[in-house]
Inverse folding.
């Protein structure tokens, strides 16, 4: 009969098959199918003698048998059908060897034979029988260990009832038998084995049990003079690398149990039936003068799997000259607190961490140093971590002075929560809480720190940072990194001021090359918070360089005043930020979720800086930022606020304290500024101002070669067009709202959609008073000098362009500026549509300006579609190719401007006037239009050379002086 062998390969094929003239080469399967059982020959041998049956005594054992077969390419294995007989060698190929291991047979009957089967693919055959004889004895324990002192052991020996047996013992052992106790077919005797004192080297002894031809052994290994023992019988070892050896019978130990971090073991090759087990201990470097106990046990292979303990190994220590354990760290902290020497932990004068330190289980960590006794040395973590520092209210160091702390991190498993009562000034840092004249370098926080204390003081201050809480002017923080979380969650302290930073709450010295990838969260009732991805506040003299924010910064809780900055919360001194000398970046996310609902509440959020302090000069040059800011106004009960100001670089300025100047040059923002509004009836934020570069500027300002690429006012859910009722929203591609000084925009570009979602349904009298808190959107600028006739402040927008859609739901919108007063616009162009196509009820829209007063517009082009629909809060539907609405009777001059596109205005379901115009939607007696051109479609009328100079097509309401009008095809 033929048989298929599916898993082996015939290595050599007849040479004739290689020639092209021979028949087609058979497949591997055909070759295998052509083989017969008689083709395969397998035999077994042991020590050169062929085997048909393999016998084992009742002892545990191991044998290697030879497997011979006539196919050197055949992959095969032997499989046992009994668990007491195991094949421990891997699969073979061709002739080879097999290692068999059998367990000890403590029973009084021979085992059922095991069958070893030769397996190759689907083939099974060539069986080999394995037998194991019965034991005449069953022992409670066959192996013991003893120290050098005299010792006594008991062994229960069970035999078949009536069996005749005796014993002999080595000279240093004495055996005292007891009368057997019958129990059914068996009887048990208890032997007491006594060992003499051993003043010589360690020795092996045994008691031999004999029943006819059957033998059994009880072994005792007794330690001797080569080891030192203490009175408790423990082996004493030096702190250097050490070893302890014991001799054991071969196969009698099934498992060695030893602490992996302290000990390892090796087994020697067998010698006359014995092996040597050596337990090795590495040197014991201790940072707290602590010896260590090492327990090692041997699990035997007998039926009861007896456990035999080595004497406890007590290893002395070698001074670590560094920190190794939490006990050492605590001892070091205690030495600093007591003003004692720290030399025991130093190498070359530096306190060093020799490895990670696990603080798991430590509940009384008090930190290192204090105001009275600060740490004043050098501490090097060696790039190791403090692990699992939990249930603690202190970071690593409380107070450092004239110190260096470097290369240490607080790991992911660590959580520091400050819950204590605090006074006027409290500081918390993951690595250092207070630093004076110190260097904090390459330190990081991967765990969490949280400030949640309480205070009875009226106006306390808290400084919380991922790396450092507070640092003076003499301190430098270099290379700090946050991948974990920093949180302020103080329950109630409305009069408190908090400085919160991913790296530092406040560093009056310098921070360089810090990196924030983690989370900075405020969720407290503290009244005022300054929060920065890197640090909360920049003060006079402080330096920054190459810092980066790529994490998240979030505002929750009940703060009445909040300033959030991707890099810095507030700048309080004159600053000239230049990317050529400061390679800082902000690429993270800022989330505003909650604040105190009050008419006085203010929130400022900027990708670079949250707020500029009053009276300072501030400039930014050469930066490219991508910080996303999201405002969540979708609470079921809308939150009231006075100001919410958001910018891609600068959130805003103080309303009551103008800056001396703010300048932006060659900066780019590509982050998204978005908002989600409540479906409730109102969104009561009085001044909601957003800008791609700056949200709100109060004071003189300039913007040169600035670019915005992100959406401003992106819809993020909730109500798409929430009612504000007396409250406003101003959005601009470059700046939201600017006033308080002259402003210049030169060669700026907006490439992101700008959307003001709210609508104001309240008013008093007149168009302008009625929109005293306006809804405004502009491609470059939202509004300038809105509602104020300040003749001395002027706006200049030159050579600026917009390419994206600009829209408001009601209110003002313009391709370049939504609203301006005292303004000059020249050389600007707009390609963005003045409509978003959804809930589109913008009242006053212009291709260049939504509304203007006391202004000139020169050489500006707009190619776009403009749709205006009147609503309850507006008096007109004004849509103009260049200008939507002239402010009252203010003079506005337009010259050399061009428009092409569709202009349409609609009164909707009202009886209010429609004012669509190719150049101006609604003009006045002071409006002058000179040498302008336009084309396209005005309120359904196709513009041609023949009708282009029609007064009501040029100016929607026909009011104003028009001259030199011509047709333009928009090319």
């Amino acid at each position: 009969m033929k048989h298929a062998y599916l898993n082996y390969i015939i290595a050599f094929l007849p040479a004739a098959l290689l020639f092209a003239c021979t028949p087609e080469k058979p497949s591997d399967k055909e070759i295998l199918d052509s083989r017969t059982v008689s083709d395969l020959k397998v035999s077994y041998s042991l020590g050169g003698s062929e085997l048909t049956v393999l016998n084992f005594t009742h002892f545990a054992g191991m044998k290697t048998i030879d497997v011979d077969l006539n196919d050197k390419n055949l992959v095969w294995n032997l499989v046992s059908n009994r668990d007491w007989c195991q094949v421990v060698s891997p699969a073979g190929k061709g002739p080879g060897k097999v290692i068999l291991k059998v367990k000890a047979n403590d029973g009084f009957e021979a085992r059922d034979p095991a069958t070893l089967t030769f397996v190759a693919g689907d083939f099974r055959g060539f069986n080999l029988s394995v037998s194991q004889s019965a034991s005449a004895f069953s022992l409670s324990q066959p192996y013991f260990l003893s120290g050098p002192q005299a010792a006594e052991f008991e062994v229960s020996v069970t035999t078949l009832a009536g069996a005749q047996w005796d014993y002999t013992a080595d000279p240093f052992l004495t055996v005292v038998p007891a009368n057997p106790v019958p129990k059914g077919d068996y009887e048990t005797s208890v032997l007491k084995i006594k060992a003499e004192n051993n003043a010589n080297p360690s020795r092996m002894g045994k008691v031999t049990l004999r029943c006819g031809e059957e033998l059994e052994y009880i072994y005792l290994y007794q330690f001797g003079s080569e080891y030192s023992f203490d009175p408790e019988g423990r082996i004493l070892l030096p702190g250097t690398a050490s070893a302890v050896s014991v001799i054991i019978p071969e196969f009698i130990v099934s498992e060695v149990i030893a602490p992996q971090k302290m000990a390892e073991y090796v087994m020697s090759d067998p010698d006359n039936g014995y092996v040597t087990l050596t337990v090795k201990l590495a040197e014991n470097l201790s940072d707290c003068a602590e010896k260590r106990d090492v327990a090692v046990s041997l699990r035997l292979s007998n039926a009861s799997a007896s456990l035999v303990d080595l004497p406890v190994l007590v290893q002395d220590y070698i001074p670590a000259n560094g920190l190794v354990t939490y006990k050492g760290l605590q001892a070091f902290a205690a030495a600093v607190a007591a003003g004692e020497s720290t030399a025991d932990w130093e190498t070359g004068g530096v306190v060093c961490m020799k490895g990670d330190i696990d603080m798991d289980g430590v509940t009384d960590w008090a930190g290192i140093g204090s105001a009275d006794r600060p740490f004043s040395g050098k501490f090097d973590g060696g790039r190791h971590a403090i692990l699992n520092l939990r249930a603690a209210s202190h970071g690593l160091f409380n107070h450092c002075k004239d110190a260096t702390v470097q290369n240490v991190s607080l790991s992911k498993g660590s959580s520091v929560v400050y819950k204590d009562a605090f006074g006027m000034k409290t500081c918390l840092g993951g690595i250092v809480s207070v630093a004076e004249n110190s260097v904090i370098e390459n330190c990081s926080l991967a765990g969490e720190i949280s400030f949640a204390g309480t205070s009875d003081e009226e106006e306390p201050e808290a400084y919380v940072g991922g790396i450092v809480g507070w640092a003076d002017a003499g301190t430098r923080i270099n290379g700090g990194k946050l991948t974990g979380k920093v949180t302020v969650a103080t329950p109630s302290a409305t009069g408190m001021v908090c400085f919160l930073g991913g790296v530092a709450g406040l560093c009056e010295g310098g921070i360089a090359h810090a990196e924030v990838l983690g989370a900075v969260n405020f969720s407290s009732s503290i009244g005022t918070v300054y929060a920065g991805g890197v640090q909360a506040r920049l003060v006079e003299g402080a330096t920054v360089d190459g810092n980066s924010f790529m994490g998240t910064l979030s505002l929750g809780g009940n703060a009445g005043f909040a300033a959030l900055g991707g890099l810095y919360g507030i700048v309080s001194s004159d600053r000239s930020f230049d990317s050529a000398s400061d390679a800082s970046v902000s690429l993270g996310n800022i989330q505003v979720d909650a604040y105190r609902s009050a008419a006085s509440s203010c929130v400022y959020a900027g990708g670079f800086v949250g707020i500029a302090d009053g009276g300072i000069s501030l400039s930014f040059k050469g930066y490219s930022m991508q910080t996303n800011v999201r405002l969540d106004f979708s609470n079921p009960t809308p939150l009231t606020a006075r100001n919410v100001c958001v910018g891609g670089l600068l959130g805003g300025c103080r309303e009551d304290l103008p800056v001396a100047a703010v300048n932006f040059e060659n900066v780019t923002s590509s982050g998204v500024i978005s908002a989600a509004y409540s479906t409730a009836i109102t969104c009561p934020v009085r001044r909601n101002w957003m800008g791609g570069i700056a949200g709100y500027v109060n004071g003189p300002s300039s913007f040169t070669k600035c670019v915005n690429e992100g959406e401003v006012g992106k819809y993020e859910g909730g109500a798409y067009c929430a009612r504000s009722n007396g409250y406003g929203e101003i959005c601009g591609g470059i700046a939201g709202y600017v006033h308080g000084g002259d402003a210049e925009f030169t060669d700026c570009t907006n490439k992101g959609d700008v959307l003001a979602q709210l609508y104001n349904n309240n008013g008093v009298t007149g168009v302008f008073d009625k929109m005293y808190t306006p809804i405004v959107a502009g491609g470059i600028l939202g509004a300038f000098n809105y509602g104020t006739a300040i003749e001395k402040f002027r706006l200049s927008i030159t050579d600026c362009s917009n390419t994206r859609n600009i829209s408001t739901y009601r209110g003002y919108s313009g391709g370049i500026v939504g609203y301006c007063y005292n303004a000059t616009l020249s050389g600007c162009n707009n390609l963005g549509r003045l409509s978003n196509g959804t809930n589109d009820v913008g009242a006053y829209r212009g291709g260049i300006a939504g509304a203007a007063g006391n202004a000139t517009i020169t050489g500006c082009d707009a190619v776009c579609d403009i749709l205006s629909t009147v609503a309850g809060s507006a008096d007109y539907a004004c849509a103009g190719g260049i200008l939507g609405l002239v402010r009252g009777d203010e003079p506005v001059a337009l010259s050399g401007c061009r428009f092409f596109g569709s202009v349409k205005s609609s009164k909707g379901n009202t009886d209010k006037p429609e004012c669509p115009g190719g150049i101006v939607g609604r003009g006045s007696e002071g409006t002058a239009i000179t040498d302008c051109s336009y084309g396209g479609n005005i309120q359904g009328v196709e513009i041609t050379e023949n009708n282009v100079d029609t007064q009501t097509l040029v100016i929607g309401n026909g009011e104003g002086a028009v001259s030199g009008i011509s047709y333009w095809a928009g090319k």
Remarks:
- Residues 1-23, 28-35, 763-772 have pLDDT under 50 and may be disordered.
- The two ends are 92 Å apart (CA to CA).
